[in-house]
Write a structure and sequence with these properties.
The complex is a heterodimer. In chain A, about 35% of the residues lie in helices and about 25% in strands. Chain A is of the alpha+beta class. Chain A has a single domain (about 1-80), classed as Phosphoribosylformylglycinamidine synthase subunit PurS (Mth169, Chain: A). The radius of gyration of chain A is 16 Å and the shape is elongated.
Chain lengths: ~80, ~230
C-alpha cells in the first residue's frame, strides 16, 4: 500500500524559506504569486493491506517523528 | 561533578564541552554513545552538545531526540538531574520535549557565526550563580536555526515564571534588532525548564573558556555548575 504524508507549517508560523522563494519568484518575473509556504512530502510504502491500519501507523509516525506538532500540521493520504 | 556528554552522529562540539568541563571543574567528563541505553552510574550533569546531528535531516535535532540514550536523559531530567543543552543540543532538547518551543530557521536565512553578547537574566540558578543578573557576557554563536519560537501562551509562561536564561544584547547589555542574530522572539538565547534544572541555549559558552580563543566569559557557566554540584554532594 502506498501513502503520501504532507507536512506543512501551521498558519501564522513565520516561514523564512517560503518568503525567500516568494521573493525569488517575483524577481524572476513570475506574475500572480501572492505568497509561498514551503513544506515536506514523504512517500511511504506500507506492508499492511488494511487501509484503517495503515492510516493508524502513519498517524503514529507523524506524531512521533515526521511532524513537530508545535509548528507543523500533517495530512495523510493512502493512495493505493 | 560527574558529567556525561552525549555523542550523537554528526555532533562536533562534544570535545569542546568536555574540555570546558575539565578545564573549569578539574573533573573529566564521560563521553556517552547515543545508542547506549543508560548513563554512567552517578551522572549528575548531562550535556547535549552542539553540532549537526544526523546532518540536520528532517528537522534539526529531530532524529537525535529519538535516540536510545534519550530515554535515560528524560528519566535523569524527570528526577531533577541537570541537563545542559547547547545549540544543536538545545534543538534536540526541544524536539525531545525537555524544553518547550522550537528553533526555526534564522529570520535572515543566513548561518551566523560571530561573537555575540548575552544578558544574564537571573543569577540564582545552577547554571548562572557565578554571573550577576543583568551582566552582559561575551559569547559566540554559530547556527542556521536559532530563531526561538513558541506559542503566545508558552512565551507568556516562560516570561512570568522567570524561565528566560539569556537574551541577545549588545556589549552594554541593551536589546536591539541589530543585537539579535536570528530574529528570536524576545531576543531569547536560552531558556530553563520549569524546575530550572534544564538549560537550553544557542550560544557556545563552552568555546569561551580560554583567553587564547577570544575570551573567558563562558567559564561562569561551568563555575556555576561546579559550585552547585559541589554543594549537593
Amino acid at each position: 500500500m502506498k501513502a503520501r504524508v504532507t507536512v506543512t507549517l501551521k498558519t501564522g508560523v513565520l516561514d523564512p524559506q517560503g518568503k525567500a522563494i516568494e521573493g525569488a519568484l517575483k524577481s524572476l518575473g513570475v506574475d500572480g504569486v501572492d505568497s509561498v509556504r514551503q513544506g515536506k512530502i514523504f512517500d511511504i510504502e506500507i506492508g499492511s493491506l488494511d487501509k484503517g491500519r495503515a492510516e493508524a501507523t502513519l498517524k503514529d509516525a507523524c506524531e512521533k517523528l515526521l511532524a513537530n506538532t508545535v509548528i507543523e500540521n500533517y495530512r495523510i493520504e493512502v493512495t493505493s | 561533578m560527574r558529567a556525561a556528554v552525549i555523542r550523537f552522529p554528526g555532533i562536533n562540539r562534544d570535545d569542546d564541552a568536555a574540555r570546558a568541563i575539565r578545564l573549569v571543574s578539574g573533573r573529566k567528563a564521560e563521553l556517552v554513545w547515543h545508542a547506549d541505553t543508560a548513563l554512567p552510574q552517578g551522572t549528575d550533569l548531562v550535556v547535549l552538545p552542539g553540532g549537526f546531528s544526523y546532518g540536520d535531516y528532517l528537522r534539526c535535532g529531530a532524529i537525535a531526540a529519538r535516540a536510545p540514550i534519550m530515554e535515560a536523559v528524560r528519566t535523569h531530567a524527570a528526577k531533577g538531574g541537570l541537563v545542559l543543552a547547547i545549540c544543536n543540543g538545545f534543538q534536540i532538547a526541544c524536539e525531545a520535549g525537555l524544553l518547550p518551543g522550537v528553533l526555526m530557521r534564522n529570520a535572515q536565512l543566513h548561518f551566523v557565526c560571530r561573537f555575540q553578547h548575552l544578558r544574564v537574566e537571573r543569577d540564582d540558578t545552577p547554571f548562572t550563580n557565578a554571573y550577576r543578573q543583568g551582566q552582559a557576557i561575551k559569547a559566540c554563536v554559530a547556527h542556521g536555526e536559532g530563531n526561538y519560537v513558541a506559542d503566545d501562551a508558552t512565551l507568556a509562561r516562560l516570561e512570568a515564571e522567570g524561565r528566560i536564561a539569556f537574551r541577545y544584547c549588545d556589549a552594554q547589555g541593551r536589546l536591539s534588532d541589530e543585537a539579535n542574530p536570528n530574529g528570536a522572539t524576545g531576543a531569547i538565547a536560552g531558556i530553563y525548564s520549569a524546575n530550572l534544572r534544564v538549560l537550553g541555549l544557542m550560544p557556545h559558552l563552552e568555546n569561551l573558556v580560554d583567553p587564547l580563543v577570544g575570551g573567558t566569559d563562558g567559564r561562569g557557566l561551568f563555575e556555576s555548575l561546579t559550585r552547585s554540584l559541589a554543594e549537593t554532594v
